[in-house]
């Protein structure tokens, strides 16, 4: 077993300390926390309506400050935590990825979503680039429609998969705080790359079945934890029926734009893009008929490998941004936004 001590462990410590300081801070101290752990010119890429923010001041004032004000007594419930070298830049930079839920009491409206006064779970995934003990870039995506549904407003009532509060890996072993065998991470990254390239080679003139294609990359008992509006599916057969098939049928002119970070550690890995895909909406998708319009999908994917193949996949798609490009502004329909004009 090959164990390598490198910048990854130091980067993990930076991010863990950042999370602890941020989650335990008062609203008025959030700016100081970001300045302590992040570069002043931090590049932050997030879910619509936050999109891209530049600098710790903007991130504190426009995102973290308002969120931690409305989500009282917050807890960060981590399901995945790992680090790796970024394949996209030739393995030069070190990134730390995490996934879980931000939990708290939803006591005030947020971005138009009405408060419930009850426990709420905001599902998230994040990638942090760490340089010289500072976070210099962050990609942080959410499942805001899931929070909407918890508040009684579900813009996507006809999803093909199941609506769930999503758990971490089945083995409850997703927090890689310690040094990992580098050979395991290499194998995981290879499995992710094989799957990506196999999809890219699909041209639409299918000879084999979709299930046969998927079996090259996935174990039969795969679980695809999709975003609210699409939902979760279990087994290759149901994934093909409940997401992969409908997705491919709904879009033409699929353009893969690449990733900004793709890495792995142990049996976990993931990537994100800005945007990953550009698609033309030519078929029914998420209950909405073809528009013929083109939009971008910003996506974070997290994976767990079992053996030679992938077996779990947690997916975050900025559906608010995608549908707004297509012509449907979901946030404008929220009760609090309507109430406030």
Tell me what the structure shows.
The chain has helices spanning 7-23, 30-37, 56-70, 144-150, 182-200, 210-215, 236-250, 319-326, 335-339, and strands spanning 38-46, 52-54, 71-85, 94-106, 119-131, 134-142, 218-225, 232-234, 251-256, 261-265, 268-272, 277-281, 294-297, 299-306, 309-317. With 341 residues, the protein is of the alpha+beta class. The protein has two domains: 7-150, Nuclear Transport Factor 2, Chain: A (Roll); 182-332, Nuclear Transport Factor 2, Chain: A (Roll). Strands 2-1-6-5-4-3 form a six-stranded mixed sheet. The protein has a six-stranded mixed sheet with strand order 8-7-15-14-11-10, with helices on one face. A three-stranded antiparallel sheet has the order 9-12-13. Strand 1 (38-46) and strand 2 form a beta hairpin. Helix 1 (7-23) packs antiparallel against helix 2 and helix 2 (30-37) crosses helix 3. The model has no long low-confidence stretch (mean pLDDT 93).
The CATH topology of the largest domain, please?
Nuclear Transport Factor 2, Chain: A
Strand/helix succession? HHEEHEEEEHHHEEHEEEEEEEHH
Strand content: 25-35%
Report how far apart the termini are.
Answer: 61 Å
Described by strand count, sense and barrel closure, the largest sheet is: 6 strands, mixed
Category by helix and strand content: alpha+beta
Calculate the mean pLDDT score and round it. Answer: 93
Q: pLDDT below 50 for ≥5 consecutive residues: which ranges?
A: none
The CATH architecture of the largest domain:
Roll
Query: Rg from C-alpha positions?
Result: 20 Å
- Name the helicity range: 25-40%
The protein's oligomeric status is single chain
Just give the CATH class of the largest domain: Alpha Beta
Structurally, how many domains make up the residues?
2
Give, in spatial order, the strands making up the sheet with the most strands. Answer: 2-1-6-5-4-3
Number of strands: 15
Shape: globular
């Amino acid at each position: 077993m090959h164990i390598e001590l490198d910048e990854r462990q130091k980067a993990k410590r930076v991010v863990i300390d950042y999370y602890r300081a941020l989650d335990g801070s008062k609203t008025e101290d959030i700016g100081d926390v970001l300045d302590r752990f992040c570069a002043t010119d931090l590049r932050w890429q997030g879910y619509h309506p936050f999109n891209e923010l530049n600098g710790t001041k903007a991130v504190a004032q426009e995102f973290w400050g308002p969120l931690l004000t409305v989500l009282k007594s917050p807890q960060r419930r981590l399901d995945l935590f790992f680090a790796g070298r970024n394949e996209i830049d030739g393995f030069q930079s070190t990134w730390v990825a995490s996934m879980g839920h931000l939990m708290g009491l939803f006591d005030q409206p947020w971005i138009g979503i009405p408060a419930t006064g009850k426990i709420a779970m905001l599902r998230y995934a994040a990638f942090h680039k760490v340089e010289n003990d500072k976070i210099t870039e962050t990609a942080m995506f959410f499942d805001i429609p899931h929070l909407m549904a918890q508040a009684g407003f579900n813009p996507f009532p006809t999803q093909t998969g199941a609506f769930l509060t999503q758990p971490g890996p089945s083995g409850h072993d997703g927090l890689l705080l310690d040094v990992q065998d580098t050979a395991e991470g290499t194998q995981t990254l290879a499995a992710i790359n094989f799957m990506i390239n196999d999809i890219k080679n699909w041209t639409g003139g299918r000879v084999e079945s979709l299930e046969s294609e998927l079996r090259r990359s996935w174990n039969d008992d795969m679980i695809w934890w999709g975003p609210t509006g699409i939902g979760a599916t279990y087994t290759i057969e149901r994934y093909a029926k409940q997401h992969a098939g409908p997705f491919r049928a709904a879009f033409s002119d699929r353009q893969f734009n690449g990733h900004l970070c793709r890495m792995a550690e142990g049996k976990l890995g993931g990537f994100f893009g800005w945007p990953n895909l550009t698609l033309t909406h030519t078929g029914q998708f998420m209950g909405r008929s073809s528009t013929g319009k083109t939009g971008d999908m910003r996506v974070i994917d997290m994976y767990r490998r079992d053996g030679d193949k992938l077996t779990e996949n947690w997916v975050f798609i900025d559906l608010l941004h995608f549908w707004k490009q297509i012509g449907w502004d979901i946030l404008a329909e929220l009760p609090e936004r309507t109430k406030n004009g």
